[in-house]
Amino acid sequence: MSDEQIKLVIVTGMSGAGKTVAIQSFEDLGYFTIDNMPPTLVPKFLELAAQSGDTSKIAMVVDMR
């Protein structure tokens, strides 16, 4: 496991609010990006990301409905 902390950005919003444009901007900034991540999978994904140590910056779109 890496000692480096993961920087996590969660993007959410209504339909047409620009979530996809926002996540594309984070991708341009070097973030690993995920669109439409189910909220129930976020904790396990972060656990796996921390174990791998390959990714320190993550941005994801999460539907909070």
TrEMBL record:
It comes from the Bacteria. Coiled coil: none annotated. Keywords: ATP-binding, GTP-binding, Nucleotide-binding. It holds the Pfam family RapZ-like_N. Residues 6-65 form the RapZ-like N-terminal domain. The keyword GTP-binding applies. InterPro entries: RapZ-like, RapZ-like_N. The keyword Protein biosynthesis does not apply. GO terms for molecular function: ATP binding; GTP binding. This is RNase adapter RapZ. It comes from Streptococcus pasteurianus. The lineage of its organism: Bacteria, Bacillati, Bacillota, Bacilli, Lactobacillales.
